[in-house]
Design a protein that fits this description.
disordered C terminus, 133 residues, 23% strand, alpha+beta, 2 helices
Length: 133
């Protein structure tokens, strides 16, 4: 029975293949961790903006401000604005006793760089007494 011994070249090639495999694996793990952190931040921004939108849409008055106990996120500001929603045909928008279609725009602004990180736009029926901000 003959004994097989590995030559130095075979060992060096095996080590090179192992090194390349580990390098690729670590790059893949680093990339996935970075994408996961980005997705988590995006989800957090959407959650905050949705929470603000739910509060605003529960109120008929357009001059609504978010209370601190409802929106306790430091480092972020919510900008709320209303305008006339476009897109309704004239025969619908010119009818008497018709509530106007209003567009509610909720922007989540990061305080440190004043960047708008999330925007939600919702069309809703307005009230005759509402005023635009």
């Amino acid at each position: 029975m003959s004994k097989r011994i590995f030559t130095l070249i075979e060992i060096i090639v095996a080590m090179a293949v192992l090194t390349l495999s580990l390098t690729g694996l670590f790059q893949l793990l680093g990339s996935s961790q970075s994408k996961l952190a980005g997705a988590l931040e995006k989800w957090h921004h959407m959650h905050m903006a949705t929470q603000a939108a739910e509060y605003v849409l529960m109120h008929a008055d357009e001059n609504v401000e978010l209370p601190v106990d409802f929106f306790p996120y430091r480092g972020y500001t919510v900008n709320i604005s209303f305008d006339d929603a476009a897109g309704l045909p004239d025969e619908f928008s010119s009818q008497t006793d018709q509530l106007p279609l209003r567009r509610c725009i909720i922007e989540l602004e990061r305080d440190r760089d004043r960047e708008i990180v999330e925007t939600i736009t919702v069309d809703r029926l307005g009230d005759d007494t509402t005023t635009s901000q």
